[in-house]
Amino acid sequence: MRNLLTISLLAIALVACNQNGSSVMPDDKEAKDMLQGVWVDEESGDVSFRVNGDTIYFADATSMPTYFRIYEDSLYLASGTAYGIVKHTKHLFWFNNQNGDLLKLKKSDGDDDVDTQEQSAPSVLTYTHQVKIDSVVSYNNNRYHWYIAINPTKYKVTKRAYNDDGLEVENVYYDNIMHISVFQGATKIYSSDFRKQQYNGLVPEAFLNEAILANMEFSHIDADGLHFNATLCIPDGATCYMVESTISYTGVPKMKLVEY
User: Fold this and answer.
1) What are phi and psi of 178, to 5 degrees?
2) Cβ pair 152, 128 in contact under 8 A
3) How confident is the model over 20-36, as pLDDT tens digits?
4) What is d(CA 11, CA 227) in angstroms, rounded to the nearest whole number?
């Protein structure tokens, strides 16, 4: 019985090892070794990226480094995006970029190129600066003082894009928190922070994951209350959603999508 138990445990261990081994993606170690160093465009001489170990560091200081592997004449990034390799030697690396264009790189032997690639962490971009605005508006002979504060945070939002070489990169931005306060005289009617997660259900989740809460503006006042428009945008993109937040005179907020 003891021998049977021992054999069973050994069989389970072997299956586990095989499963773990099969989950490891194949990689051409020799090709990866040849890719170590700084690579520049053959025509322009501009640095495209630096390779150190199994990581690519892009020339753009705002782009995240990415893990890569090489298998069967293709370069694979961590996202799973593949680029077909046309020519690869110790000093040349030609491959087709995202647009299908042939990108011809050569290995640099200049120290000045290396200096431009030493950053291991990308710069995080702040999409707005801190803003505080306020005003007084009237309705039915009552005066209301509203106040908006736009505050950058340390919450990071990652956006996938393509750089000048047609390679997929990830840029990182800081999200914002918006604060709205409404007073009638010395009486506080409403005071609260707004974060982009609060717009889930009004804005598609896939868009919201890559968007930041870019702006908050006062729109108008009417019988329903004070109306504020929040803008959620993909950083450096043309696509935005506008959501209206109405603060009633009893301090009850209500949101609706008004534009996208």
Assistant:
1) -105, 135
2) yes
3) 433 466 888 999 999 99
4) 67
Q: Are 19 and 29 in contact (CB under 8 A)?
A: no
Residues in contact with 103: Cβ distance below 8 Å, sequence separation at least 6, in sequence order? 41, 48, 94, 95, 96, 97, 165, 166
What are the φ/ψ torsions at residue 30 (nearest 5 degrees)? -65, -45
Contact (CB, 8 A) for 66 and 77:
yes
Residues in a beta bridge with 34: none
3-state secondary structure of 11: helix
- Distance CA(150)–CA(130), nearest Å, equals 5
CA angle 121, 126, 131 (to 5 degrees): 155
Q: Using one digit for the tens of pLDDT, what is the confidence trace for 201-254?
A: 999 999 998 899 999 999 999 999 999 999 999 887 778 999 999 999 999 999
The SS3 of residue 27 is coil
